[in-house]
Each structure stands twice: as C-alpha cells, then as structure tokens.
Amino acid sequence: MKIYTRTGDEGKTSVIGGRVTKDDTRVEAYGTIDELNSFVGQAASVLARETSVDWEDLLEHLTLIQHELFDCGSDLSYAVLDPQKMKVTPVMTDRLESWIDLYEAQTPPITRFILPGGSEPAALLHVCRTVCRRAERRVVTLSLEQDCPDEVRKYLNRLSDFFFTAARAANARLELLDVEYERGAQVFRRRS
C-alpha cells in the first residue's frame, strides 16, 4: 500500500459520509485533536527518559489518553452522527476526573495562577493543556455549525484539567515549585 493517494490534491478530504474541504470545521476539529495526540506522545517520550522519578502511572495514563484521542477523532469524522458507532463515553470522562483527583492530591495547594514550566515534563504537559483547550474550542465551533457528539467536548474539557494537574504533579514529584504569576492576586482555594 502506498501512503500517498493523490485524492487530496484538490484540497478535499474524506470524512465518514462524504468529502469536504480540508479546512472544513470538522476536519479542523479532529486535526487539532491529532496535533494534541502528537504532543501527548512527545510528553510521554520525555517522561520515559526521565529516570529520577517513577512515572509508570502517568505514562500508562498518557498512553490510554492517546487511544482515547483517536476515539475522539473517529467520533468527529462522521458527517452524520450514528450514536451506535460513537466510541467516547461518559466513563472515559469520569476516569479523567478520578485521575485529576489522584494527581491533585500530590501537589501543594494552589492560590495563584501559575506559569507553564518548572520542569521539562511539566512544560510539555502544559503544551498538551493549551492544545487541548484549542481542540475543545474547535469542537465547540463544530457543534454550533454541524452535528457533533457532545461527549467529545466534555472529554476534552476534562482532559485539559487533567493536563494541568498532571503538570503540577510532575513538578511536585521532581521537587520543583510551580512558578506563580507574580502580578496575580490569590484566586484559588483548595476544595475539600
């Protein structure tokens, strides 16, 4: 099988149920999720090289997230939704919430906005967070224009929170403090 097909040379691509322009809102949404998946892979590669801390749980979570991001893209690729074929479920979003709670318990209380960074793993997880937020915005735009599975939007919303918390946990595991935004007031209180 050849990797090139020449079918996109005129600026169109296939979705399940037809062909659209490559800048179609649906293609932009699942393309941004694909971009996010690449950054998740980069973050996982950096964590796998970092041997001073045990990252096994986070690496396992990131790998599962990569598969679930493929599921998100698959669900978004339907020009006409077929509820029987959707792969993203509320169980996946609920699992993210449990992981967020797990990682948040590993971090010091947050009172101010923080700057992305601290350690390389944390910085890359923050890149994942910001690309995830952009993917979520693209899915919101899609949902205003065309049929769009609601659960993908919910999953992405929770996923960006996961990346934020995982980034903070990465710094904590490496015994680095998050860098607080100096000009910000105390705006957060830890939930009990």
UniProtKB/TrEMBL annotation:
Belongs to the Cob(I)alamin adenosyltransferase family. It comes from Cohnella silvisoli. Keywords: ATP-binding, Cobalamin biosynthesis, Nucleotide-binding, Transferase. This is Corrinoid adenosyltransferase. Residues 3-169 form the Cobalamin adenosyltransferase-like domain. The lineage of its organism: Bacteria, Bacillati, Bacillota, Bacilli, Bacillales. InterPro entries: CblAdoTrfase-like, CblAdoTrfase-like_sf, PduO-typ. Pathway: Cofactor biosynthesis; adenosylcobalamin biosynthesis; adenosylcobalamin from cob(II)yrinate a,c-diamide: step 2/7. Pfam families: Cob_adeno_trans. It catalyses: 2 cob(II)yrinate a,c diamide + reduced [electron-transfer flavoprotein] + 2 ATP = 2 adenosylcob(III)yrinate a,c-diamide + 2 triphosphate + oxidized [electron-transfer flavoprotein] + 3 H(+); 2 cob(II)alamin + reduced [electron-transfer flavoprotein] + 2 ATP = 2 adenosylcob(III)alamin + 2 triphosphate + oxidized [electron-transfer flavoprotein] + 3 H(+). The keyword Ubl conjugation does not apply. Its EC number is 2.5.1.17. The keyword Membrane does not apply. It is an enzyme of class 2 (transferase). GO terms for molecular function: corrinoid adenosyltransferase activity.
